[in-house]
Automatic annotation (TrEMBL):
Identification of the protein by name: 33 kDa chaperonin
Keyword Ligase among record annotations: no
One cellular-component annotation, GO: cytoplasm
Posttranslational modification: Under oxidizing conditions two disulfide bonds are formed involving the reactive cysteines. Under reducing conditions zinc is bound to the reactive cysteines and the protein is inactive.
Subcellular location: Cytoplasm
Keywords: Chaperone, Cytoplasm, Disulfide bond, Redox-active center, Zinc
Species per Swiss-Prot/TrEMBL record: Tetragenococcus koreensis
Source taxonomy: Bacteria, Bacillati, Bacillota, Bacilli, Lactobacillales
Covalent S-S links between cysteines: C237-C239, C270-C273
Gene from which the chain derives: hslO
Keyword Phosphoprotein assigned: no
Length: 296
Protein backbone atom coordinates (compact mmCIF):
# COMPACT_ATOMS: atom_id res chain seq x y z
CA UNK A 1 0.00 0.00 0.00
CA UNK A 2 1.34 3.43 -0.91
CA UNK A 3 1.69 6.14 1.70
CA UNK A 4 -1.06 8.71 1.97
CA UNK A 5 -2.47 11.37 4.25
CA UNK A 6 -6.13 12.12 4.84
CA UNK A 7 -7.59 15.48 5.84
CA UNK A 8 -10.91 15.32 7.62
CA UNK A 9 -13.26 17.15 9.92
CA UNK A 10 -15.69 16.28 12.67
CA UNK A 11 -18.05 18.04 15.05
CA UNK A 12 -19.50 20.29 12.32
CA UNK A 13 -16.04 21.53 11.38
CA UNK A 14 -14.98 22.57 14.86
CA UNK A 15 -12.38 19.82 14.86
CA UNK A 16 -9.94 19.21 12.03
CA UNK A 17 -8.22 15.87 11.80
CA UNK A 18 -5.30 14.52 9.80
CA UNK A 19 -3.84 11.03 9.69
CA UNK A 20 -1.00 9.63 7.66
CA UNK A 21 0.60 6.32 6.81
CA UNK A 22 4.24 7.24 6.11
CA UNK A 23 5.79 3.78 6.25
CA UNK A 24 7.48 3.89 2.85
CA UNK A 25 8.49 7.53 3.32
CA UNK A 26 10.31 6.82 6.58
CA UNK A 27 11.69 3.57 5.16
CA UNK A 28 13.20 5.50 2.24
CA UNK A 29 14.79 7.98 4.67
CA UNK A 30 16.14 5.14 6.82
CA UNK A 31 17.79 3.47 3.82
CA UNK A 32 19.18 6.67 2.31
CA UNK A 33 20.78 7.73 5.59
CA UNK A 34 21.69 4.23 6.79
CA UNK A 35 19.98 5.19 10.04
CA UNK A 36 20.15 2.98 13.13
CA UNK A 37 17.02 2.29 15.14
CA UNK A 38 16.91 5.20 17.61
CA UNK A 39 18.01 7.71 14.97
CA UNK A 40 15.43 6.24 12.55
CA UNK A 41 12.61 6.68 15.04
CA UNK A 42 13.64 10.26 15.85
CA UNK A 43 14.04 11.22 12.18
CA UNK A 44 10.88 9.31 11.22
CA UNK A 45 8.75 11.07 13.84
CA UNK A 46 10.08 14.41 12.61
CA UNK A 47 9.28 13.52 8.99
CA UNK A 48 5.75 12.47 9.96
CA UNK A 49 5.17 15.66 12.00
CA UNK A 50 6.47 17.72 9.08
CA UNK A 51 4.10 15.97 6.68
CA UNK A 52 1.20 16.72 9.04
CA UNK A 53 2.17 20.40 9.34
CA UNK A 54 2.90 20.57 5.61
CA UNK A 55 -0.57 19.30 4.77
CA UNK A 56 -1.99 22.59 6.07
CA UNK A 57 -0.18 24.74 3.47
CA UNK A 58 -0.71 25.01 -0.28
CA UNK A 59 1.14 23.13 -3.04
CA UNK A 60 4.64 24.56 -3.33
CA UNK A 61 4.66 26.34 0.02
CA UNK A 62 7.12 24.73 2.40
CA UNK A 63 7.51 24.02 6.08
CA UNK A 64 10.88 23.33 7.66
CA UNK A 65 11.11 21.81 11.11
CA UNK A 66 14.43 22.12 12.95
CA UNK A 67 14.95 20.29 16.19
CA UNK A 68 18.18 21.14 17.95
CA UNK A 69 18.37 19.15 21.15
CA UNK A 70 21.23 18.20 23.45
CA UNK A 71 21.05 14.46 22.71
CA UNK A 72 23.53 12.34 20.71
CA UNK A 73 21.35 12.47 17.57
CA UNK A 74 22.22 16.13 17.06
CA UNK A 75 20.08 18.35 14.86
CA UNK A 76 17.11 16.92 12.98
CA UNK A 77 15.84 18.85 9.98
CA UNK A 78 12.85 18.10 7.76
CA UNK A 79 11.23 20.09 4.97
CA UNK A 80 7.82 19.31 3.55
CA UNK A 81 5.42 21.02 1.17
CA UNK A 82 1.69 21.15 0.54
CA UNK A 83 1.95 18.46 -2.12
CA UNK A 84 2.97 15.69 0.28
CA UNK A 85 6.72 15.72 -0.40
CA UNK A 86 9.10 15.53 2.53
CA UNK A 87 12.87 15.30 2.91
CA UNK A 88 14.99 15.28 6.00
CA UNK A 89 18.03 14.15 7.91
CA UNK A 90 19.41 13.64 11.37
CA UNK A 91 22.92 14.89 12.08
CA UNK A 92 23.99 11.58 13.61
CA UNK A 93 22.12 8.70 11.94
CA UNK A 94 24.05 6.12 13.94
CA UNK A 95 22.38 6.27 17.35
CA UNK A 96 21.15 3.01 18.82
CA UNK A 97 20.18 3.27 22.48
CA UNK A 98 18.77 0.64 24.81
CA UNK A 99 14.95 0.63 25.05
CA UNK A 100 13.49 3.04 27.63
CA UNK A 101 11.70 2.09 30.86
CA UNK A 102 8.45 1.50 28.94
CA UNK A 103 10.25 -0.92 26.62
CA UNK A 104 9.99 1.57 23.73
CA UNK A 105 12.60 3.09 21.46
CA UNK A 106 14.27 5.87 23.41
CA UNK A 107 13.66 8.81 21.06
CA UNK A 108 14.00 11.26 23.93
CA UNK A 109 17.44 9.81 24.62
CA UNK A 110 18.56 10.54 21.05
CA UNK A 111 16.94 13.98 20.79
CA UNK A 112 17.64 15.24 24.30
CA UNK A 113 15.39 17.17 26.65
CA UNK A 114 16.84 20.67 26.28
CA UNK A 115 16.94 22.70 23.13
CA UNK A 116 14.97 24.49 20.46
CA UNK A 117 12.08 23.30 18.31
CA UNK A 118 11.58 25.68 15.41
CA UNK A 119 9.37 25.85 12.36
CA UNK A 120 9.85 28.06 9.31
CA UNK A 121 6.97 28.40 6.86
CA UNK A 122 7.71 29.74 3.42
CA UNK A 123 4.32 30.67 2.03
CA UNK A 124 5.64 32.58 -0.97
CA UNK A 125 5.37 35.90 0.89
CA UNK A 126 8.18 38.41 1.31
CA UNK A 127 9.21 37.11 4.69
CA UNK A 128 8.93 33.49 5.76
CA UNK A 129 7.01 32.94 8.99
CA UNK A 130 9.13 31.52 11.77
CA UNK A 131 8.25 30.32 15.25
CA UNK A 132 10.09 28.49 17.95
CA UNK A 133 9.45 26.85 21.28
CA UNK A 134 11.72 25.06 23.72
CA UNK A 135 11.90 21.27 23.53
CA UNK A 136 9.45 20.11 26.21
CA UNK A 137 9.76 16.35 25.93
CA UNK A 138 12.15 15.12 23.26
CA UNK A 139 9.63 12.38 22.36
CA UNK A 140 8.59 14.80 19.59
CA UNK A 141 4.80 14.25 19.45
CA UNK A 142 4.44 16.40 22.55
CA UNK A 143 6.91 18.88 21.09
CA UNK A 144 4.83 19.31 17.93
CA UNK A 145 1.71 19.67 20.12
CA UNK A 146 3.39 22.27 22.33
CA UNK A 147 4.68 24.21 19.33
CA UNK A 148 1.20 24.42 17.77
CA UNK A 149 -0.42 25.48 21.04
CA UNK A 150 2.13 28.13 21.98
CA UNK A 151 3.53 29.44 18.69
CA UNK A 152 0.46 29.11 16.46
CA UNK A 153 -2.21 29.33 19.19
CA UNK A 154 -3.92 26.23 17.83
CA UNK A 155 -4.90 23.72 20.51
CA UNK A 156 -3.85 20.43 18.97
CA UNK A 157 -2.86 16.90 19.67
CA UNK A 158 -0.11 15.35 17.57
CA UNK A 159 0.88 11.69 17.64
CA UNK A 160 3.86 10.44 15.65
CA UNK A 161 5.26 6.94 15.80
CA UNK A 162 7.65 4.59 14.06
CA UNK A 163 7.91 0.86 14.50
CA UNK A 164 11.46 -0.33 13.77
CA UNK A 165 12.15 -3.99 13.07
CA UNK A 166 15.04 -5.89 14.66
CA UNK A 167 17.11 -5.52 11.45
CA UNK A 168 16.68 -1.68 11.62
CA UNK A 169 14.18 -1.69 8.73
CA UNK A 170 10.97 0.30 9.17
CA UNK A 171 7.91 -1.86 9.86
CA UNK A 172 5.33 0.92 10.04
CA UNK A 173 5.33 4.68 10.52
CA UNK A 174 2.55 7.20 10.79
CA UNK A 175 0.76 9.81 12.81
CA UNK A 176 -2.24 12.01 13.39
CA UNK A 177 -2.95 15.65 14.15
CA UNK A 178 -6.21 16.79 15.73
CA UNK A 179 -6.87 20.53 15.86
CA UNK A 180 -9.59 22.39 17.73
CA UNK A 181 -10.99 25.37 15.90
CA UNK A 182 -12.12 28.48 17.79
CA UNK A 183 -15.56 27.91 19.25
CA UNK A 184 -15.18 24.15 19.68
CA UNK A 185 -17.39 22.85 22.46
CA UNK A 186 -15.40 22.34 25.65
CA UNK A 187 -17.10 19.04 26.38
CA UNK A 188 -16.10 17.81 22.92
CA UNK A 189 -12.52 18.86 23.53
CA UNK A 190 -12.44 17.14 26.93
CA UNK A 191 -13.94 13.93 25.55
CA UNK A 192 -11.44 13.88 22.67
CA UNK A 193 -8.51 14.50 24.98
CA UNK A 194 -9.68 11.63 27.15
CA UNK A 195 -9.81 9.28 24.14
CA UNK A 196 -6.40 10.43 22.91
CA UNK A 197 -4.86 9.68 26.31
CA UNK A 198 -5.66 6.01 25.82
CA UNK A 199 -4.95 5.75 22.12
CA UNK A 200 -2.59 3.00 21.00
CA UNK A 201 0.42 4.17 18.97
CA UNK A 202 -0.38 4.86 15.31
CA UNK A 203 2.46 2.55 14.23
CA UNK A 204 0.79 -0.30 16.17
CA UNK A 205 -2.59 0.43 14.56
CA UNK A 206 -0.95 0.49 11.12
CA UNK A 207 0.76 -2.79 12.00
CA UNK A 208 -2.70 -4.25 12.68
CA UNK A 209 -3.67 -3.23 9.16
CA UNK A 210 -5.67 -0.10 9.95
CA UNK A 211 -5.80 2.62 7.29
CA UNK A 212 -5.48 6.36 8.09
CA UNK A 213 -9.27 6.66 7.66
CA UNK A 214 -9.85 3.82 10.12
CA UNK A 215 -7.44 5.40 12.60
CA UNK A 216 -9.50 8.62 12.54
CA UNK A 217 -12.73 6.61 12.93
CA UNK A 218 -11.15 4.91 15.93
CA UNK A 219 -10.10 8.24 17.47
CA UNK A 220 -13.56 9.81 17.04
CA UNK A 221 -15.56 6.76 18.11
CA UNK A 222 -19.29 7.31 17.47
CA UNK A 223 -18.78 10.80 16.03
CA UNK A 224 -18.86 10.73 12.20
CA UNK A 225 -15.67 11.83 10.44
CA UNK A 226 -15.95 13.54 7.05
CA UNK A 227 -12.93 12.84 4.84
CA UNK A 228 -12.19 15.97 2.81
CA UNK A 229 -9.08 14.95 0.91
CA UNK A 230 -6.71 12.05 0.39
CA UNK A 231 -3.16 12.98 -0.64
CA UNK A 232 -0.24 10.70 -1.53
CA UNK A 233 2.92 11.44 0.47
CA UNK A 234 6.50 10.53 -0.33
CA UNK A 235 10.14 11.09 0.48
CA UNK A 236 11.27 13.43 -2.27
CA UNK A 237 14.28 15.70 -2.46
CA UNK A 238 14.50 18.63 -4.86
CA UNK A 239 18.30 18.75 -5.08
CA UNK A 240 20.05 18.74 -8.46
CA UNK A 241 23.53 18.96 -9.95
CA UNK A 242 22.66 22.48 -11.15
CA UNK A 243 21.91 23.58 -7.60
CA UNK A 244 25.23 22.26 -6.31
CA UNK A 245 26.99 23.86 -9.30
CA UNK A 246 25.52 27.24 -8.25
CA UNK A 247 26.81 26.57 -4.76
CA UNK A 248 30.32 25.91 -6.11
CA UNK A 249 30.18 29.05 -8.26
CA UNK A 250 29.26 31.11 -5.21
CA UNK A 251 32.48 29.94 -3.51
CA UNK A 252 34.42 32.15 -5.94
CA UNK A 253 37.30 31.59 -8.34
CA UNK A 254 40.08 31.17 -5.75
CA UNK A 255 38.20 28.52 -3.83
CA UNK A 256 37.30 26.61 -7.01
CA UNK A 257 40.95 26.78 -8.17
CA UNK A 258 42.01 25.41 -4.78
CA UNK A 259 39.67 22.42 -5.25
CA UNK A 260 41.05 21.86 -8.77
CA UNK A 261 44.66 22.02 -7.53
CA UNK A 262 44.11 19.76 -4.54
CA UNK A 263 41.53 17.21 -5.69
CA UNK A 264 41.11 17.64 -9.47
CA UNK A 265 37.44 16.82 -8.90
CA UNK A 266 34.67 17.48 -6.42
CA UNK A 267 31.93 15.41 -4.88
CA UNK A 268 28.94 17.12 -3.35
CA UNK A 269 26.62 15.17 -1.08
CA UNK A 270 23.04 16.29 -0.42
CA UNK A 271 22.47 16.28 3.34
CA UNK A 272 18.74 15.67 2.91
CA UNK A 273 18.79 12.63 0.61
CA UNK A 274 22.43 11.51 0.47
CA UNK A 275 22.51 11.77 -3.34
CA UNK A 276 26.04 12.40 -4.61
CA UNK A 277 27.00 14.71 -7.45
CA UNK A 278 30.41 14.50 -9.14
CA UNK A 279 32.22 17.37 -10.84
CA UNK A 280 35.19 16.58 -13.07
CA UNK A 281 38.21 18.88 -13.38
CA UNK A 282 36.81 20.11 -16.72
CA UNK A 283 33.44 20.91 -15.15
CA UNK A 284 35.13 22.71 -12.26
CA UNK A 285 37.12 24.80 -14.74
CA UNK A 286 33.84 25.76 -16.43
CA UNK A 287 32.29 26.68 -13.07
CA UNK A 288 35.35 28.81 -12.36
CA UNK A 289 34.68 30.67 -15.62
CA UNK A 290 31.10 31.23 -14.48
CA UNK A 291 32.41 32.58 -11.18
CA UNK A 292 34.70 35.00 -13.07
CA UNK A 293 31.68 36.25 -15.07
CA UNK A 294 29.75 36.66 -11.85
CA UNK A 295 32.46 38.88 -10.42
CA UNK A 296 32.57 41.33 -13.32
ZN1 LIG B 1 18.81 15.81 -2.07
Amino acid sequence: MNDYLVKAMAYRGFVRAYAVNATQTVSEAQKRHDAWNTSSAALGRTLIGSLLLGSTVKGDDTITVRIQGDGPGGAIIATSNGSGDVKGYIQNPHVSLPLNEQGKIDVQGAVGTQGIFSVTKDLGLKEPFSGQTPIVSGELGEDFTYYLAVSEQTPSSVGVSVLVDTDDSIKTAGGFMIQMMPGADEEVVAALEERLQHLPKVSSMLDEGKTPEEILDFIFGDEPVAILEKMPVQFKCDCSKERFASGLISLGTQEIQAIIDEDHEAEAVCAFCDNKYYFTEQELAELKQEAVKGNT
